[in-house]
């Protein structure tokens, strides 16, 4: 006699596709991650980069993360995942790794902010670097939230 209980495939939540991506909690973080990461890149690019090694890493992490997150968002919107469990693993690993990289970039940007307090065009560079540091830490927090919410889903 066959069991009446639900099958294993029906107990797992389906991955959203199309506009439902913006209504589902872990996946709704992708758009704010892209927007905040873009602000980090724009604000760092607007400063006179006095520490190219530090701020170069910040720009690399923010630009690369924005592009990969945009590709991930497009793949969810177009339904490339086909409700595969591997996409959850890929998403969690990507956002966890990116959270670590963004944390390193945010700390380096905070260091660049402290160093830009004095020097030529100090008030403007300090304000831009402060805003970039804020958005870098905010983006880090969003990536951490996304990674843990995918993991615990």
Q: What portion of residues belong to β-strands?
A: under 5%
Distance separating the two termini: 32 Å
Q: Which runs of at least 5 residues are low in confidence (pLDDT < 50)?
A: none
Biggest sheet features = none
Number of strands: 0
**How helical, in percent, are the residues?**
over 70%
Give the SSE order as H and E letters. Answer: HHHHHH
Number of helices: 6
Q: What characteristic shape results from the CA principal axes?
A: elongated
Radius of gyration: 19 Å
Mean pLDDT: 85
Number of domains: 1
The computed structural class is mainly alpha
What does this structure look like?
- With 153 residues, the protein is an all-alpha fold.
- It has one domain.
- It has helices at residues 8-11, 25-28, 30-46, 52-78, 85-115, 122-151.
- The longest helix is centred in the middle third of the chain and has 31 residues, at 85-115.
- The chain is elongated and about 55 Å long.
- 33% of the residues are buried.
- The mean pLDDT is 85.
Question: Which short descriptors sum up this protein?
Answer:
single chain, 153 residues, mainly alpha, 0% strand, transmembrane, structural constituent of myelin sheath, MAL
